[in-house]
Amino acid sequence: MPCMKSWIVLKYGGTSVSTLPRWRHIANRIRELQSEHRVWVVISALAGHTNKLEAALAEAVSGGAPDLESLERDCRRLAAEAGLNDASWDKALEVLAETRKLLDGARLTGEASPRLRARVLSAGERISTHLGAALLAAWDLPARWTDATQLLESERAEGETDANAYLEARVPVRSQPERAEASVNGASLVLTQGFIARNTEGETCLL
User: Fold this and answer.
1) Are strands 189-193 and 37-43 parallel, antiparallel or unpaired?
2) Could you give the CA distance from residue 192 to residue 43 in angstroms, rounded to a whole number?
3) How far is CA 194 from CA 10, 46, 97, 118, in A?
4) Closest-CA residue to 179 (of 157, 146, 204)
5) Cβ contacts of residue 63 below 8 Å, gap of 6+?
6) Residue 26 three-state SS
7) Three-state DSSP state, 65
8) Quick one: which of 35, 18, 17, 34 has its CA closest to 26?
9) How far is CA 65 from the centre of its chain?
């Protein structure tokens, strides 16, 4: 039988997901709501991480060595405080590795298209949600990690530049409960990203 509880959506910005006490607050809030609701949690990148990705991309394009070490340290500190081993948040580490490859490409070519910028800058939300899912699982709150790009699709206006289409995308508001349900497969707790969507070609874009 599918769960008939109504959904409630929680949205947390970067500051609210950057420390272990704040994640414990999120976990407690989820527990408060679960008796009466299914809970859909939307979170941002950890505080400052989008800026760090911007800086790393600029450094790569200029031919320098892009630095993601401080970003990784933030994640490792949070994981260590929660007692997580690398295997429990390996998906976040995979996103970090993929992002380093994208930055290497930008360094070799000396340029970053709006398409590439969107892919690099979306890494913050992907990392934070994979890490967040590991934290919640460690506290007996297994969440269904859901890719926001499978839910939100942007529409490109006639004459719109690539910069706007990839970096300031517009997603029409639609009610699509069937699509949402299909993406979470009956889960009662979902964790997904803010800030990102996909375009009609299936490529990542930023809201």
Assistant:
1) parallel
2) 7
3) 11, 12, 21, 13
4) 146
5) 107, 110
6) helix
7) coil
8) 17
9) 24
3-state secondary structure of 172: coil
Residue 25 tokens read as: 């607050």
Scan for tokens 């450094």, then name that residue: 59
Using CA atoms, how far apart are residues 117 and 100, in angstroms rounded to an integer? 13
- If one counts every other C-beta atom within 10 angstroms of the C-beta of residue 186, the result is 11
Query: The tokens 């859901």 sit on which residue?
Result: 146
List per-residue pLDDT tens for the chain, 207 residues long. 455 799 999 999 999 999 999 999 999 999 999 999 999 999 999 999 999 999 999 999 999 999 999 999 999 999 999 999 999 999 999 999 999 999 999 999 999 999 999 999 999 999 999 999 999 999 999 999 999 999 999 998 888 899 999 999 999 988 888 888 998 989 999 999 999 999 989 999 999
Instruction: Tell me the three state secondary structure of residue 177.
Output: helix
Strands 196-198 and 204-206: antiparallel
CA distance 192 to 6: 18
Q: What is the largest CA-CA distance in the chain?
A: 56
Q: Is the dihedral of CA 180, 45, 129, 112 positive or negative?
A: positive
Cβ neighbours, 10 Å, residue 125: 25
φ, ψ (nearest 5 deg) of residue 111: -155, 160
